[in-house]
Fold:
Amino acid sequence: MSLKFGRTQLAIPGPSVIPERVLGAMHRPSPNIYAGELVEMTESIVPDLKAVARTKHQATIYISNGHGVWEAALRNTLIPGDKVLVLGTGRFAEGWASMAKSIGVEVELVNFGMEACADPDVLEETLRKDSKGDIRAVMMVQTDTASSVINDVAACRQAIDRANHNALFMVDCIASLACDRFEMDEWGVDVTVSACQKGLMTPAGLGFIYFNDKAAGAKKRTSPGEYWDWDLRAEPEIFYQRFDGTAPTHHLYGLRAALDILVHEEGIENVWTRHKTIAHSVWSAIDAWGTSGSISHNIQDRAIRSHAVSTVNMSDGNAAKLRSWTEENAGLTLGIGLGFPEADFGNHFRIGHMGHQNLPMVMGVLGTIDAALKALDIPHGDGALDAASKVLAAHPAA
Ligand SMILES: *Cc1c(COP(=O)(O)O)cnc(C)c1O
Structure:
C-alpha cells in the first residue's frame, strides 16, 4: 500500500524545489514588455545576480538552460581551431568539453575520475608544458553534479598564475551558485556560467554568464552570432536587446522573488552556511547507514564534498530499488546515478539538498530513505536520523 498521497518532493540535484513565493510571483497576467514595471524589475535583478556570484563585472541573462550558456560562453571567447584544457571530474565537465568539440574547439581533457577533485599541481604542470601558449582557456566545474565533488576554484586560479599562463579561466557554477561559497572576483575567475533552476530556486529556463574585462577582450576575435553575443545583453541600448527579443517575463518575476529571499532576506553568506549544515546532516546519516552493509559516500574526503548534492554508492542494484520505492510508495524522487559505467548505474543514487531546503524537508528526505532501507531489507547501520538531527541542532556546522 502506498503512502505517496501527500505533497511530493523532488530531491534531485536540479531542478530544485521551487518556493511558493516564486510560483506565486509568476502567477499573473503578462506585463508590457517594452516599458514600465518589467523593465525596472529586470534592471534590479542584474545587481543581485552579481551579488550572488560576488562580482563587479558583467552579468547577462539568456533564455536557456545550462547547456545554452555553456555554448554561449564558448562562442563569445573562442573560435574553431582554438584549444582548451578541461579538468574532468565527472559527467558535467565532460559535457562542457563535448560542447566545445561540437563548435570546432580542440579539447585536451585531463581526467581526475569520479571520486576525486581536480589537482591544481597537475593543472600547473600541464600549463607549463604549453610553452607556446596554445591553450586559450581552462574550463572546469565548481561542483560536478554527477560525482558530487567540489573543486577548489581559488587553488586552480593560483596554479594558472604559478604557471604564468594567459589562458582564460572559465568555471561552471550551475550546481554550486547560491549553495557553496563562490567568489568570482576574489578568486580570479574570468567567465562564470550558471542557471536558475538549482541554487536560485526558479523553474528551469534562464542561464547566466558573468564575464570580466579579460574575457571581453577575448571576445574581440570571435563572431558568436547575434543571439549568443553577450555585449548587448550586458549593456543594452534598449531593453529589448537584453534578451535579443521578448523577455522571459514570468521567469523574471520568479527570479526576482528568489533573489529577494536569498540576497535581501536570508543573505548569501547565511545561505551558504545553511547549505553547509544541511549537507553535514545528510553526510552524518549516510555515515550511520554505512556502518553496516555496503552504503558509502562516493566522495570519501569530506573536504571535497559539495554542499548541494551527495552521491551515494550501494551494491546489488539497491540504489535503483531504493529510488523506485521512494518514488512509488512515498512521493519522494531521488537523483539517478550519472557518469558511472552503465552497468553500474543501479548502484548509485544522489540526494539533491540545494536551494529551498529547511529542517522538515531534509529530515523528511532522510526519514523516507531510512524507511525504504527497512522496507527493502537492505542491510544498513542504525541511528541515521539521530545523527542527522544532532547536526541540525548544532547549526551552524563546524
Ligand atoms: C545541471 C547542470 C548542468 C546542465 O544544466 P541544464 O540546465 O540541464 O542544461 C551543467 N553543469 C552542471 C554542473 C550542472 O549541475
Residues 268-289 form the longest helix (22 residues). The mean pLDDT is 97.
